[in-house]
Every structure is written in structure tokens, then in C-alpha cells.
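lol forgot to send this yesterday, sorry. C-alpha cells for the thing we talked abt
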């Protein structure tokens, strides 16, 4: 990581120094401070007197939207996939994940920013970091949240991690005129992209089509394998002539893809059979991005917990919170994010697709800071 970033991040803090419980609270209940260009130049000059600010710079709020989505995703996945061991059996995996996360954050500082302690005390540093990131990756301030979340930088880093892969990193392959199958690694970056769904069939049925046998022009057969990912990303733009799918139909997703298992193995060659056991993977809608259609519009978001209940927003975020309307309007693109949900659907008292803004969040945050002394936990193994 460049020295200018390293010093700014040291000033901004890192919520991973706290225990998991308090980390989750901060990921869920704290938001990026308003960007203020007045803080940027003096903060940068303190780091390096040669740094200056472009007077024409305009902050792009889509970077705040992307920050909130990634923080919410981290809140919804197991700690071991954030680089923390939950038990002795997790230590090896957690160590690998922690090393990979550090490497990815060094290469793309935006990922490191998603772990910053987003407090009022670091307002100036947050603005300076976001200025440097946007100036490098989005100098004209024209990227939308979907462009950021599906950028090559994130396809090469966050989304290529195994826990976010819909399909296994390995697939079964059978050469032409051969009887045996063998494993090969999938290395196509484009396979990490978001699922693009047009609403012509139910979402679960569409995802199941990703696990079928493919045949190449050379006669080779390929079978994708289900990877049971922590997060499923979907770009929904209803272009079908059928009725659109709305929030009630999308808040829970139950997947049961065909799973091929190894019947026997001889070296790299395997004999396959379909797993006949009943299998269901329930997912809950945890976030929606209402994608802006024009320069005059802003990306807006809704967040939900893993039980499907909408998360309340701070009143300060009304310009970013999507407060009215439903999913599925033709001509509008939505990003849907799903995480592992409970085995059985909950009977929810509130079926509205969005929570009302809450003026109590700042008070709750202050109370948490005042009543709980957050324990500084072990660093990532």
C-alpha cells in the first residue's frame, strides 16, 4: 500500500481491532460521514506537502453506497471468512483468508476503507481517503454503484474469493471420446461477474441453469459444481413480457441445484453420480441497490438482516436510503444481494420492503460507546 494511504488509514482506525460482536455493531450501525472538500487539502498536506486537491473535484456518492453494501456483506458472513478463527478447526482457513484480505486491500485501498471506523472524529480523514480513491479510479465522478461493485478491481479481489463464488473453483471435465471425468480449475475472471437475470423465470430456476453440462466446440464436456457461497449477487432488470417479480417474491430464495459427487477416484480421474439426498440452501435478501438511470439520479439502497427484516437508517442518510417503491419496475436495474438465511422462513410482523428512518441510531451508537467498553481482540491470525 502506498505510504500516503497507510498513514491516513492509521489515523482513521480499523474496526477489526475490536471483538466480533462490536465489529458487527459498527458494520451495521455506522455510515460514511458526509464528504467535505474543505477537510481534504489540509489533511493531505499533513501527510505529504506535495499533495494537492483538484478544484474541480466533485465527490461521487456512489462510492458511499458501495462502501455500505460491502460493510453490510461483511456483517452477514461468518467471522472465519473475514480472517478470524471461531475455533481451532478454523485457524488455518482464517489465516489464509486474513493474508489474502491484506494483499487485496494493499492493491485496492477502497477495500481497506470499508473497515474504517466511521466516526465523526475521523470526518476529515474519511474525506481525504475517499478523495484519493475516487481521484485514482473515478476521476470524473461518473461511476455508478454497480460499476464500482462489479469493477475489475473487485472481480479480481473480493468476488474471486472462494466464499463468494457461486460455482466451485474446479469443474468436472470429460474429453471427447473418453469415459472418465477429471477436475480442472476454472480461471476465467468473467465467471466472477454478477448474475444477470431478466425476470422471465423465477430466480431460483434461473440460478439452477448455471449447473448444467456444457459442451465446447472441441467436444469437451464441462459440469459446473455448486459452491454454497456466502453471498449471491444478482443484477435484475425486468425485460420479460411476464409480470415482474416484487419484493415479497424475492425476499427469500431456496436453491436445490443438482450436486454431482465422486463415486470413485483414480488419481485425477473420477467416476461421478448425482447426489440423491434432499438438499436445500435457503438464502435471504440482505441488500438492494436501486441503480440510477441518469446523471440526475442517485444510487439508493435498502438493507435487511439475515431474517429478512429491514434495517432502519439514520435520518442523516435519507438522501441515500430508498424509502418508496417496490422492486421490479421495467426499465430499472436493481442489484440484489443474498446471504445464507434460516432453514425455515420466519413469520414476519412487518412485510414492508423498507424500514422507516430512525433518529435513534446516533443515540444508540453513543449509548453503545458509553456503556460497553469494546474489548480489543486478537488481530487476524
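and heres what i got for the seq, position by position
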Amino acid at each position: 500500500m502506498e505510504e500516503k494511504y497507510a498513514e491516513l488509514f492509521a489515523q482513521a482506525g480499523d474496526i477489526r481491532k475490536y471483538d466480533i460482536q462490536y465489529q458487527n455493531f459498527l458494520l451495521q450501525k455506522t455510515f460514511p460521514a458526509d464528504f467535505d472538500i474543505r477537510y481534504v487539502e489540509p489533511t493531505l498536506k499533513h501527510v505529504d506537502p506535495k499533495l494537492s486537491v483538484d478544484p474541480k473535484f466533485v465527490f461521487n456518492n456512489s462510492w458511499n453506497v458501495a462502501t455500505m453494501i460491502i460493510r453490510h456483506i461483511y456483517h452477514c458472513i461468518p467471522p472465519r471468512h473475514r480472517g478470524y478463527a471461531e475455533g481451532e478447526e478454523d485457524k488455518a482457513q482464517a489465516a489464509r483468508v486474513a493474508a489474502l484480505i491484506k494483499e487485496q486491500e494493499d492493491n485496492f485501498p477502497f477495500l481497506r476503507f470499508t473497515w474504517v471506523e466511521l466516526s465523526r472524529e475521523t470526518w476529515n480523514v474519511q474525506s481525504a481517503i475517499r478523495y484519493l480513491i475516487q481521484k485514482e479510479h473515478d476521476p470524473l465522478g461518473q461511476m455508478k454503484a454497480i460499476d464500482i461493485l462489479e469493477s475489475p478491481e473487485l472481480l479480481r479481489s473480493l468476488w474471486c474469493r472462494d466464499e463468494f463464488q457461486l460455482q466451485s473453483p474446479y469443474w468436472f471435465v470429460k474429453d471427447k471420446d473418453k469415459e472418465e471425468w477429471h477436475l480442472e480449475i476454472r480461471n476465467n475472471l468473467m465467471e466472477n461477474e454478477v448474475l444477470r437475470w431478466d425476470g422471465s423465470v423465477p430466480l431460483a430456476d434461473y440460478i439452477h441453469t448455471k449447473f448444467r453440462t456444457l459442451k465446447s466446440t472441441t467436444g469437451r464436456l464441462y459440469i459446473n459444481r455448486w459452491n454454497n457461497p456466502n453471498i449471491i449477487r444478482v443484477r435484475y432488470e425486468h425485460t420479460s413480457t411476464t409480470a415482474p417479480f416484487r419484493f415479497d417474491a424475492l425476499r427469500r430464495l431456496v436453491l436445490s441445484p443438482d450436486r454431482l459427487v465422486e463415486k470413485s477416484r483414480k488419481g485425477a480421474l473420477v467416476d461421478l453420480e448425482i447426489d440423491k439426498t434432499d438438499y436445500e440452501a435457503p438464502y435471504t435478501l440482505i441488500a438492494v441497490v436501486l441503480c440510477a438511470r441518469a446523471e440526475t439520479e442517485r444510487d439508493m439502497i435498502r438493507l435487511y438482516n439475515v431474517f429478512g427484516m429491514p434495517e432502519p437508517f439514520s435520518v442523516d442518510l435519507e438522501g441515500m436510503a430508498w424509502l418508496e417503491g417496490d422492486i421490479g419496475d421495467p426499465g430499472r436495474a436493481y442489484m440484489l444481494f443474498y446471504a445464507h438465511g434460516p432453514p425455515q422462513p420466519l413469520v414476519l410482523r412487518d412485510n414492508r420492503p423498507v424500514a422507516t428512518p430512525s433518529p435513534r441510531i446516533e443515540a444508540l451508537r453513543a449509548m453503545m460507546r458509553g456503556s460497553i467498553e469494546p474489548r480489543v481482540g486478537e488481530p487476524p491470525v
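Confidence is low (pLDDT under 50) at residues 371-381. anyway ping me if u want another try
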